[in-house]
Amino acid sequence: MKKDVPVSEIMTKKLVTLTAKDDLVTAERLFKKHHIRHIPVVEGSSIVGMLSYTDLLRISFADAIDEHEEHVETIVYNMFTIPQVMVNDVVSIASDTSIRDVARFLSKKEFHALPVVDNGKLVGIVTTTDLINYLLELY
């Protein structure tokens, strides 16, 4: 088994992102449209926060809405902004961090995604699902 494979080999490079000016209705639609659970919040090419689908579930009944349904209950979403709901103190990694180090780190933390940042620029995201899929390919 390869031990020093960089996370750049498995990270998602085609990112779905939000800005602090976007609303939570937009976020909810992006989560469902792209079948993802984490969206980096950016300002230009820099990450300023991370919004997870779980963050939305904490403030709404988003999981009760059918994923194909277009109508979204917006009353609760309009009470909050993305900066109020997102995680602000984002932990990130560099693209040359080994997959092993990423797995070790995520196994000890209570979150399931890490933004990948090189020279202050968001270049990808790696999730526990990416790690599991990588392991499945090995076996």
TrEMBL record:
UniProt protein name: Signal transduction protein with CBS domains
Species classification: Bacteria, Pseudomonadati, Bacteroidota, Flavobacteriia, Flavobacteriales
CDD domains, A to Z: CBS_pair_AcuB_like (cd04584)
UniProt KW keywords: CBS domain
CBS domain mapped to chain residues: 11-67, 86-139
